[in-house]
Amino acid sequence: MTNETIALQLAHRTIRAYKDQPLTEAEVATLMDVARHTATSSYLQSCTILHITDPQVREAIGAASGQPYVGGTKGDLFIFLVDLYRNSRIRAEQGISSEALSSMNLFLTGAEDALLAAQNVVVAAESMGLGTVYLGSILADPRSVVQALKLPELTFPIVGLLMGHPDQEPGQKPRLPLSVMTATNTYPHVESYTEALADYDREVSEYYDLRSGSRLESFTHLVGTSIGVGGAHVSPIAQVLHEQGLCLR
Amino acid sequence: MTNETIALQLAHRTIRAYKDQPLTEAEVATLMDVARHTATSSYLQSCTILHITDPQVREAIGAASGQPYVGGTKGDLFIFLVDLYRNSRIRAEQGISSEALSSMNLFLTGAEDALLAAQNVVVAAESMGLGTVYLGSILADPRSVVQALKLPELTFPIVGLLMGHPDQEPGQKPRLPLSVMTATNTYPHVESYTEALADYDREVSEYYDLRSGSRLESFTHLVGTSIGVGGAHVSPIAQVLHEQGLCLR
A93: which of B41, B126, B200, B215 lies 20 to 30 Å off by Cα? Predict the structure, then answer.
């Protein structure tokens, strides 16, 4: 039950170190063409993708993210926008109001378009031998990203994506067992997650132990300590969405 | 600049009619394994996937979606959940509060996990010769979906996905030109979208004309008339998110 595409997907790992070799124009064109052919909610195509090539813009986004490898020159940086602005302009040119675009509902269709397109691009990039890393970290300071990209109302930078030629070979981080992550028909009853995840916790600890030789970390400990702490977890995302005219109702 | 995976992605089209041949257990296992290996925000794995095999549950979701092919028996139905509940339980077992999980920020990390996993599954399914259709329509009545799936607090059904053996060969719906959907560094200035999209509007009209022989529809006309009308566009999504304890701040 496997093939080349699936083998690639099962081998996915995050790459954060890249060689000093930018993507070619042809590679970028192919990746954007894949994005364009992704499914889109209600055919509204509420997504725009920016390729960041200006070092100053990139430094601003690197600073917003708080991660050193986001700035700098290695790898090619793309920002996926929820874009309801284009459709509001199309409506305005027909004399039609765009009040509906400020709802949570329409924001979610745009987030869906942008995130599905991003994952489609990731699979295509990996099939070309490139490495990828999602940058949820750009949301640690979304207002600075909005300013750096000169984003109009009704747009929002939902995720960044860095892609390039890998300069590292990291191990694969263990994922939750399917018995916990999937179920049939209704939400599964689990008596004790501590018990259900004991084996998985050991697997995660071994992974960290092999990598760092010191850090002893389990999944349940990480969930207990890292949620709501720092970066995008405590950033003013809701406020900036509202400033952009999104999710108002 | 192409390969088997990319050729497949560029040939994507939505399939809504399926043969009466369910997925095998091995196929489902492979697809879920691909979901599990998708990138995850902050390693929190805030996503759970339900496979709907009970005809009554499926009928309830079909009714909520308002689309006849969502109920019934053809194709296999999956619901992708934003799941912050599992991590709240893991924290509760350690005596730690989960107030942070009610923020927009954490909801977005869960939406990201669920939507990236869904698109990874779509690419894998298409590589196996299966057809797929996203069901944003399940959000036309999210409260009924929450009830049918017996979803606990801090979970939300972000998207449905129907997959199966195609029983139709639809044409490929034309997408926005890359000159409009992508740009470099900053949000692009477009003087008139009516002009910029004139050729694309003609392409879309020809597509509809060939399909139906009657309906004359352009992209800009659709954007002018369909946004905020019916189904998921006018459903109480924000209210149900709040009822689930999500996006409270």
Answer: B215
Rounded to 5 degrees, what angle do the CA atoms A62, A65, A66 make?
Answer: 85
B202 in the same domain as B140: no
Question: Where among B141, B156, B171 does a domain terminate?
Answer: B171
Q: Is residue B223 in some structural domain?
A: no
- Does residue B141 fall inside a structural domain? yes
Q: How confident is the model at residue B209 (pLDDT cuts 50, 70, 90)?
A: confident
Q: What are phi and psi of A134, to 5 degrees?
A: -75, 145
Name the residue facing B116 among A119, A124, A219 (closest C-beta): A119
The pLDDT value recorded for residue A215 is 61
Q: Please list the residues that pair with A81 across neighbouring strands.
A: A48, A157
Residues of chain A contacting residue B139, judged by C-beta atoms under 8 Å apart: 105, 108
**Do residues A82 and A192 both lie within one domain?**
no
Domain termination site, one of A154, A171, A188 = A171
Q: How much is the pLDDT for A149?
A: 98
* pLDDT tens digits, one per residue of B65-104: 999 889 999 999 999 999 999 999 999 999 999 999 999 9
Whether A213 shows a pLDDT value over 90: the answer reads no
Structural domain includes residue A240:
no
Task: Return the ∠ at Cα A163 (arms to A161 and A168), rounded to 5°.
Answer: 120
Is it the case that residue A175 has pLDDT exceeding 80?
yes
A154, A211: one domain = no
- Both A40 and A116 in one domain: the answer is yes
Q: Is residue B247 part of a domain?
A: no
Question: For residue A83, what are the contacts with CB-CB under 8 A and spacing of at least 6?
Answer: A46, A47, A48, A110, A114, A154, A155
The CATH number for A29's domain is: 3.40.109.10
Q: What pLDDT band is residue B211 in, cutting at 50, 70 and 90?
A: confident
Residues spanned by the domain of B209: 178-217
pTM above 0.90, yes or no: yes
How far, in Å, CA of A14 to CA of B38, rounded?
Answer: 10
In this complex, how many residue pairs, one in chain A and one in chain B, have their CB atoms less than 8 Å apart?
357
Q: Do A38 and B119 touch (CB under 8 A)?
A: yes
Q: Name which of A41, A69, A77 is nearest A162 in CA terms.
A: A77
What is the arithmetic mean of pLDDT over A143-172? 97
Average pLDDT, chain A: 96
Our count of domains for chain B comes to 2
